[in-house]
Amino acid sequence: MHCKSLWIKTSAKCINVNVKYMYVELLSVLHFLFSFQNAGDKENMLNILNVLDELLSAGTDRRIHHMISKGGSEALLTALVNSARSFTPNYTILLPLLHLLAKVGYRDRQIGLKAQKADAVLVVLGLLRQNTENSRRAAACLWVLRVFCSSVTTANLLGKNRGLDVVFKLISPHSTKHLRTVNSVLQRFQIYVNCRTAVAKGYIADLLKLYEDWHNNDVNLKNIPIRRALLHCLQCAANSAVGRDALVAEGGISLLFQTTQTCLTMKGLESLVEPAIQLMRKCNPKVPLPLTSDKSVFSFPLPGQPVDDWDADLGLYGKVCNCCLSEDDLETDVNKLRPQPEPDRTLEQLGQYVRLCPELHHDFQDLDSSSEVDESSDDDSTLEGDLNDETQSDQRGSDLPSDRDEHHLHTSDFHKHYLNCSRRGQKGHSSMVDRLLEKYGICIPNHDPRLYAATAANTKSIAGYSILAFPDFWGHLPPQEQEPMAKRPPHVQRKKVFEDIQRLICPEDIINKVIFDMDDHSPQCTPDMCPSSLHFFSKFESGNLRKAIQIRSHEYDLILNADVNSSAFCQWFYFEVSGMVAGVPYRFNIINCEKGNSQYNYGMQPVLYSVRDALEGRPHWVRTGSEISLHIYSHILHSAFSFYTLTFTVMFHHDDDVCYLAYHYPYTYTTLQTHLKMLEKSVDPQKVFFRQQNLCDTLAGNSCSLVTITACPTSRAWKHLPQLRNRPCVVLTARVHPGESNASWVLKGTLEFLCSSDPVAESLREAYIFKIIPMLNPDGVINGNNRCSLTAEDLNRQWLMPDPNLSPTIYHTKGFLYYLNSIGRTPLVFCDYHGHSRKKNVFLYGCSMKETLWQSGSPINTASLKEDPGYRTLAKTLDRIAPAFSFNNCNYLVEKSRASTARVVVWREIGVLRSYTMESTYNGCNQGIYKGLQTGTRELEEMGMKFSQSLLTLRRNAIHYNSRLIHHASALLDLDDRLLDHKSNNCFEDDEPPCMEEIEYSSCSDPFGANELDTEVNGNTSSEEEDEEDADICRDGKQRNNRKSHLVPHYLKQDALETLTIKSGQCNGSNGYLY
């Protein structure tokens, strides 16, 4: 032994020469020494442990992992078992050994299984039982057990051997002694507390009592780590349903609510507030939505299917996530990336689309007279034509007054009695409407309320809507000033959680009264019946509010209707609210949102329209709402899906006003039809060829319009007509997703610009034939859907094989594109206008074979592939001229999950190089001159205009230049070198920075890492008075983070270190450790 001791001392001096081999030799010695357990071996054992600890503490974890790979964990476990099983265990050896094993074992993923194999688990549990009165020994055993429990089987083994009872006995009520042990015990107790045994034994109630005791007695705030550890134990218990139920049953939520309120009044307790709020929120009992059925209120019989034969969960669990892009989703099959312009139908079938190109067949004989209606134009109804058959009028449209003077007519009365588009609703009051329009009406470009009402009578909805929403009837003008993004108040989610928890602990304050219910056709809460509550209504075109429940005097839970024939896709809302008191904050909770994050968490606000303001000359949709938050709440569906709650607070400006709230600026189908009629009347038929035709009828019988816009030839001369018929086509579509109303506003800007007298617009009409389908999903828009058509399917996922009976608008749009391709007029550009709920700015998605292969890491040599880089031209142009556009948000990758979308199918099957999806934010911009501002309809329409202008760059060599054009389009045509101040960012960044508060409350995780464990272990070996050190720990909250060796007791450590310490330069010029 003496020789071996000398070898250890000598070897230690040269340990820097080859550290890796020293690990193996030291472990061999360790095995040897603990096998014989000679009394004279104590100093050598301590020296070995100290050498190991010095080696492992000085470098990185790489040394420890190397030691583990050489059997270090097994050697330490064997040594521990042999030492502990001796007749009189020597704790001078066991304590440093336990400490070292805790450090090494934490970094060994297999330590639990290795401990079981070495029979060390129950040995350490036995040592803990023997030392419950010795805080330092108990702490050491607890750290090792904690490391062992990284294995589930090891934790179960401890549970079967009543390890939970042993650990819990070490947790004491409030005391000023043994604080370190209590803290260590709590951190170890977290491992077991989520099991059913802990609940059965009543430990949840005991933990709550302990937390209350430590909270009440910790007046000097010296025991924050212990209080935090108790909360973490409760969080772990709440990971299981039985734990949450037990915590609620024992009054845990009420206790946490009261103690957290106290913590908020004191500085330095933030570390207790957040876990307590998360715990309350997690334990708040889950309740089903207060609905008789999760299916949509509306159902529609589909061709060839029974009425009830549809999947109630369609789309809820199979939806495609639009928020992120995975490299695994990128298409790597070159054959699927190559354009394949083979039609999916015969040429005979394509012949039906000849009528949709009237400009190619029109003879323009009337160039010198007023333009006549072309035979191919489908004029479904005249402007003042007969209305549809009488539809069943809503109760609000009855009992019409006849002689009331408009001076005494209240805002609510005007809306209630006169905005009815049915035959019955119009009889006897049209003159009154005329007088009101003469008194209050203002000129809104391309809008006529009378024409809107007449057009609305031809709109077919499932519910047979007859009431008109006032904003759609009256019209909208953008506000004069742009509206900044809302600033998120600090701790807004915390405040909302507190208010929600009060529902549970103070049920006597809850009204819980149904104010509006689409499922209930009986008379609901009228102003006479409920004079103190708000009143809601959504039975109008594009409206979506299924149910409104008054929770408190000024708080309402709102439930949205699912898309028709489905039980999913709840996001779009549009409803009327009235009966308010001015200046009072009303809280609205939309409790069945499906998206977990949106721009509402980053400055976006809903929009509001006030009838009173409109009648006073301010017909504006404006952004509104404060304390906006989107977070998970307690409502669930089928116990498998938790909804999110969008909550916001609104203060109305007028008493007893009638207001409308919406997800985004509404744009109805009737608005579109009215707009198209107004545009057709506004253009000069001698200069502008404008035709509105019916592409097809929808399932509900509404017309899907196709608009053709181009320049009329200057004459019928032989050189002018061929020039028109040789113009390339540009195909634009929008509103395939009904909830993306911003797409319609962008397209409105495109339409109005193309019909204007602007020199650039004139050049565009002379350069292109525009084929525009402004609304691909009329039925979805009319009935207030968010994502789908009446088939409960996303129409933008039907482009591969569209069904002519179930998806007629997609089927015929694709067929029309095939027709253009078959006659040699493949569109130069195709763009589908969309809205994006999770990103800012406006940007393009395109298609590139090379970029997709590069991004996916495909081994295919892309140098041999030919691809026209012209697909980037429009994005570069828009980056120069469009303030809201961001080039850096664009991408041109083809994903497998998007294989059936318009963008990809038109690119691949029709052969359109420049096939795009243009995404417009619901929120605003984070770059350029619009940075920090929410986009309004003015900016959206401007984007539509700018997109049109960008098309001019593709035909710059074919247009006729004049002074007016050069003056208006110099920047567009790159005729000057001025730098614009709205360039996109130069680097790609995440869409959003981290939210000020967590969007999701995640399940609890172990807050202690390897470094924290090392610090605790080192602190447990100090020789100072434990109580004094405990006080320092609790005062500081945590110790200095390091792994410096503290294993060997002070009475042995000094001599050992004098023997083993290696000074710089002592070993052949070596400069310290290897790592």
In what order do the strands lie side by side in the largest sheet? Answer: 1-11-12-8-6-5-3
Query: Which overall shape is indicated by the principal axes computed on the Cα atoms?
Result: globular
- Largest sheet properties: 7 strands, mixed
What percentage of amino acids are in beta strands?
5-15%
Straight-line N-to-C gap: 32 Å
Mean pLDDT: 79
The percent range for helix content is: 25-40%
**Structural class of the helices, strands and pairings?**
alpha+beta
**Count of β-strands:** 21
- The number of helical runs is 41
> Low-confidence parts, pLDDT < 50 over ≥5 residues?
3-17, 36-40, 310-325, 369-409, 975-991, 993-1007, 1023-1075
Using the CA coordinates, give the radius of gyration: 37 Å
Protein architecture, described:
This protein has 41 helices and 21 strands. The chain has 1075 residues and is α+β, with helices and mostly antiparallel strands. Strands 1-11-12-8-6-5-3 form a seven-stranded mixed beta sheet. A seven-stranded mixed beta sheet has the order 14-15-17-16-18-20-19, with helices on both faces. A five-stranded antiparallel beta sheet has the order 4-7-13-9-10. Strand 14 and strand 15 form a beta hairpin. It is globular. It starts with a helix and ends in a 15-residue tail after the last helix.
Question: What's the arrangement of secondary structure elements?
Answer:
Elements: H1 2-13, H2 19-36, H3 42-58, H4 61-69, H5 72-84, H6 91-106, H7 111-117, H8 120-130, H9 135-148, H10 152-160, H11 163-169, H12 179-189, H13 196-200, H14 203-217, H15 224-237, H16 241-249, H17 252-264, H18 270-283, E1 287-288, H19 334-337, H20 347-350, H21 411-418, H22 423-426, H23 430-440, H24 449-456, H25 470-474, E2 483-484, H26 492-505, E3 513-517, E4 535-537, E5 547-552, E6 555-559, E7 574-578, E8 585-593, E9 607-610, H27 611-615, E10 621-623, E11 626-637, E12 641-651, E13 658-662, H28 669-682, E14 688-697, E15 703-711, H29 720-725, E16 729-734, H30 741-754, H31 759-767, E17 769-773, H32 778-782, H33 808-822, E18 829-836, E19 842-845, H34 849-856, H35 873-881, H36 902-910, E20 914-921, E21 933-934, H37 937-950, H38 963-969, H39 1010-1019, H40 1026-1036, H41 1050-1060
Parallel strand pairs: 1-11, 6-8, 16-17, 16-18, 18-20
Antiparallel strand pairs: 2-21, 3-5, 4-7, 5-6, 7-13, 8-12, 9-10, 9-13, 11-12, 14-15, 15-17, 19-20
Helix pairs in contact: 2-3, 2-5, 3-6, 3-41, 5-6, 5-8, 6-9, 6-39, 8-9, 9-12, 12-15, 14-15, 15-18, 17-18, 18-26, 24-28, 30-37
